[in-house]
Amino acid sequence: PQAHKAKINKAYESVGQRVKVNGWIHRIRNNKKLVFIVLRDGYGYLQAVLTGNLALAKQTQELTLESSVSLYGTVNKLPEGKSAPGGVELSVDYYEVVGWAPGGEDSFTNKVNENADPSLLLDQRHLALRGETLSSVMKVRALWMKYLRKFFENEGLTEVTPPCMVQTQVEGGSTLFKLNYYGEEAFLTQSSQLYLETCLASLGDVYCVQESFRAEKSHTRRHLSEYTHIESELAFIDFDDLLSHLEKLFVETVGYIMEDPVGGALVKQLNPDFKAPTYPFKRLDYKDALEWLNEHGVPNEDGQKFKFGDDIAEAAERKMVDTMGVPIFLTRFPAEIKSFYMPRCKDDPRVTESVDVLMPNVGEITGGSMRTWNETDLLEGYQREKIDHAPYYWYLDQRKYGSVPHGGYGLGTERILAWLCNRYTVRDCSLYPRFTGRCKP
Ligand code: 4AD
Ligand code: MG
After folding, report:
1. Segment 156-206, tens digit of pLDDT
2. What is the pLDDT of residue 61?
3. Topology of domain 132-429, per CATH?
4. Which atom from ligand 1 is nearest to the alpha carbon of 170?
5. What's the pLDDT at 142?
6. Rounded distance from Cα 423 to ligand 1 centre (Å)
């Protein structure tokens, strides 16, 4: 019978039919007179069996690991007790090699060895991406983006695309990547927040999906030099509205992923102990966090007890969220450890209307705040941070022409993936990670 062309996920549903499946040889092994292949096409994995003369193909090195092939054959349901992806097996009656891959010295396995040094593996990232774990994380990543956009659409946000090349900082000058812009100094953007704020008056609530760049000196498991920053800005809200919005974002978006047949299965496979977030998130003020850390004997950066004004660094933050084991809204940070744009709390002007969302295993995955919306206070913020406000004339104008209370946040995509997929480092959650000393391939 004629074979119809099928992607692997469709082949699962073609029991009894003759199909042509294109893909790459993911695994291949001999068993006496049989050759078993696991074919991969980006849609799934398919077990295929070759018998008789066709089974000579492995010995003759015609079929090798990572060769691309077209397999023709009948899809059979596997009997009880035998398992394979989709519960089916392809009985191959004919095949074509499309792009042969070398065996021996130059074989794929020699290039991409899971036990190799991580930096060698990163040199071979273009090949390592063919691995099951990495490709699963990339699929969850795509679903995260898809369902986050669905959430934004439901909430009535409009997507915008701010510039990457800018002349202002958002999160401190020390991590700016400088570039020569036709002889003028410019930077790669650290955050699109300020630009999003300028959109509120004409577009309403907005969001963007944009790469952010940070020349991080710190070599940690959760810092990249380039990461996908999803930022959003909401008008006419107060701090409580901001927290409720964030809570809903995580509960609903993760809910969509877990209900997705592909997404749910991938997350369970990568992260069997994953607990989807539920309402309400635990709320913890910065000053109560310091108390918790001191009570639990967690020292600050200098090995001392925490005192007001100290940064809660990565290790301490993770210790806290891992012990509590639930998402945390860490709120009300002191003004001096936060950026110029954060407004002070009315009941305690030492602290700001700010929030970090902490998740187990990663710590901070989101940073957000209300924004100072009055010009005088904003100028005070620039002065405190010793930033020349001249280049920010356009940002200050937002305070001049019809200012409103507003706030927003930035989500670190790779950190969210590290949490969802239980990865040790954000480097495993980026297609081609950029960090200190790594800019290839
Ligand atoms: O906390 P950050 O620096 O906040 C901002 O940039 C705000 N302007 C965002 C806003 O309100 N629109 O960064 C936001 C998030 C962090 O919580 C973290 O998840 C991620 O971005 N992030 C990084 N991810 C990977 N590598 C880095 N070097 C990161 N720096 C921040
Ligand atoms: Mg932050």
Report:
1. 999 999 999 999 999 999 999 999 999 999 999 999 999 999 999 999 999
2. 87
3. BirA Bifunctional Protein; domain 2 (3.30.930)
4. 8
5. 98
6. 18
Q: Rounded to the nearest 5°, which phi and psi values hold at 397?
A: -60, -25
In this structure, is the dihedral angle defined by the CA atoms of residues 65, 68, 74 and 78, taken in order, positive or negative? Answer: positive
The pLDDT value recorded for residue 85 is 94
Nearest to 300 by CA among 309, 314, 310: 310
Structure tokens at 140: 């969850």
Q: Decide: 364 and 315 in contact? Cβ < 8 Å.
A: no
The pairing of beta strand 406-412 with beta strand 363-370: antiparallel
Give 116's pLDDT tier (boundaries 50, 70, 90): confident
Structure-token match 């695309």, residue found = 161
Q: How far is CA 68 from the centre of its chain?
A: 30
Q: How far apart are CA 314 and CA 112, in angstroms?
A: 32
Residue 371 Cβ < 6 Å to ligand 1: no
Burial 411-426 (b: 16+ CB within 10 A, else e): bbbbbbbbbbbbbebb
Is CATH 3.30.200.20 the classification given to domain 4-108? Answer: no
Q: How far is Cα 329 from Cα 337, in angstroms, rounded to an integer?
A: 17
Of 188, 149, 151, 152, the closest CA to residue 167 belongs to 188
| % of the chain with per-residue pLDDT over 70 | 100
Q: Return the H-helix or E-strand segment holding 155.
A: none
pTM comes to 0.96
* β 4-5/282-285 pair status: unpaired
Residue 71 token pair: 């397999």
Nearest to 363 by CA among 222, 178, 216: 222
* DSSP character string of 193-212: HHHHHTTHHHH-SEEEEEEE
Q: Is 410 in the pocket of ligand 1 (CB under 6 A)?
A: yes
Report residue 225 as tokens. Answer: 């030099």
**C-alpha distance from residue 252 to each of 148, 247, 261 (Å):** 9, 9, 16
CA distance 211 to 168: 16
pLDDT, tens digit (0-9, with 9 covering 90-100), for 375-432: 999 999 999 999 999 999 999 999 999 999 999 999 999 999 999 999 999 999 999 9
Judge if the beta carbon of residue 214 lies within 6 A of ligand 1.
Answer: yes
Ligand 2 center from residue 178 Cα (angstroms) = 21
Both tokens of residue 89?
Answer: 């097996």
In the chain, domain spans: 4-108, 132-429
In the block, tokens 């301490």 appear at: 316
